[in-house]
Amino acid sequence: MTVSEVRYGTGREALIRAVVDVVAEEGLDGLSYRKVAQRAHVNNTLISHHFGSKEAMLEAATVWAVQRTQQRADLTLASAIDRDFAETLTRIVGEEPNLQVFQYSMILASRRSPELRRIAGNLYESYISMVQDVLVRYGYEPERAAARAVFAALDGLVLQQVTVAEREEIVAAITRLGSLIERK
Amino acid sequence: MTVSEVRYGTGREALIRAVVDVVAEEGLDGLSYRKVAQRAHVNNTLISHHFGSKEAMLEAATVWAVQRTQQRADLTLASAIDRDFAETLTRIVGEEPNLQVFQYSMILASRRSPELRRIAGNLYESYISMVQDVLVRYGYEPERAAARAVFAALDGLVLQQVTVAEREEIVAAITRLGSLIERK
DNA sequence: TGTCAAGCTCTGCATCTGCAGAGTTTTTGC
DNA sequence: GCAAAAACTCTGCAGATGCAGAGCTTGACA
Fold it and tell me: Of A11, A36, B53, B59, which has the highest C-beta tally within 10 A?
């Protein structure tokens, strides 16, 4: 029996990380047991062992990605949407773009999966709450619509960053967003 | 030979429409020649005949979707980001959600395809220009950063509409966005 | 040290996939 | 009306896929 390249007992997490990378780089259409396993340096049937099905594997990877993103969001926590914040957010996104791309893929996939929809809905609500806190510091009443709109702007700009735009363009847009919402 | 259910000569467009629907409903991972052909009511090998490959079929569908979206965007053209605009935009999105979902899928896929990246980049730039025109009417200088940010907010809100949020929430957020950017 | 459960690999298979090549049908243009 | 091109269908196939079932390895615990 071939000895696995990962430490015994760490295969599950290696698979999850591999899922995120493969999906981000090759899309959900490029995802297969063999590709994930190769990336994780384990045997592909370990996927069935740990997750049972492809769908369950994706759900587990989504939960992992969400947790990881929220840890990193805590590092980004802002009291203002200014240039510092823009530089920090785009730097963090740029360090691990696959994490974001994977999540956008799963957001879209949530249309076909009640469980993913629940996870995605909760994730977005938590982000909207964080933005709402920031808006309160800007002097706004705590209201959902404004927070949702501002969060959507950040979400949309991150989507542009990982797809068609340059980081500097996103830094400028986020900074400008901050000045747009300043109470005058 | 089985008689096709679509009028002779219209198979190509039927396939393209079917691609958009299948991708939106089942993801790129759920896309196959047989599924698309079944949806289009033609024989699956007509795909090879018209497009040559799966990738080329997706590019053709993207071009079609972009053109169709831009026609519909012209119907949405706003002089203001207000409640009327919000109702119209969300209504149009709600009438044909698959078109939007397909495009988000292809935006993500553009990371892996120079041609898709070019198409997506152009599409986004044209939208940002439209938003810039609106901002000029609001009394803003013609500058890219603000337009990009406001377009991103609309893009992010449409993404939420087709995934995790209710239409009324999006209407409220777009309306609120309008008031946030009003010069005071 | 031995046992058992969890982690892991190997073998195998039914089904699906993209698409090649040949043949049929419809349209176009002279 | 006929020939050629475009549109379309049928048959077939090599390769890929998810995952079942059996067996091997490692770690935990008594």
Answer: A36
Nearest nucleotide to the CA of B44, by C1', is D9
Which residue's CA lies closest to nucleotide D24 at its C1' atom?
A: A1
What local confidence, expressed as pLDDT, does residue B73 receive? Answer: 79
Backbone angles phi, psi at A113, to 5 degrees: -145, 115
Radius of gyration of chain A (CA): 18
Q: State phi, psi for A120 to the nearest 5 degrees.
A: -65, -40
pLDDT tens readout for residues A132-164: 999 998 889 989 999 999 999 999 999 999 999
User: Residue A53 CA to chain centroid, in angstroms?
Assistant: 22
Find out whether A153 and A85 touch, Cβ atoms under 8 Å: no
Whole-angstrom distance, CA of residue B104 vs CA of residue B163 = 11
**Alpha carbon A74 to chain centroid distance?**
13
**Phi, psi dihedrals of residue B122, rounded to the nearest 5°:** -60, -45
Closest chain A residue to the Cα of B123, Cα to Cα: A164
- Cross-chain Cβ contact A146/B180 below 8 Å: yes
- Contact in structure between B115 and B59 (CB atoms under 8 Å): yes
Place of tokens 């239409």: B167
> Would you state the pLDDT for residue B6?
83
Give dist(CA B156, CA A173) in Å, integer.
Answer: 14
Q: What is the value of ipTM here, to two decimals? A: 0.93
Show the tokens assigned to A7: 């430490």
The low-confidence residues of chain A, meaning pLDDT below 70, are 1-4, 75, 184
Alpha-carbon distance of A55 to A145, in angstroms, equals: 33
| Cβ within 8 Å, pair B28-A29 | yes
Rounded Cα–Cα distance for residues A164 and B123 (Å): 10
Identify the CA nearest to B125 among candidates B96, B104, B147. B147
Per-residue flag: A42 CB under 7 A of strand C: yes
CA distances A71 to A66, A74, A125, B137, Å, are: 9, 5, 16, 41
Place of tokens 């500097």: A168
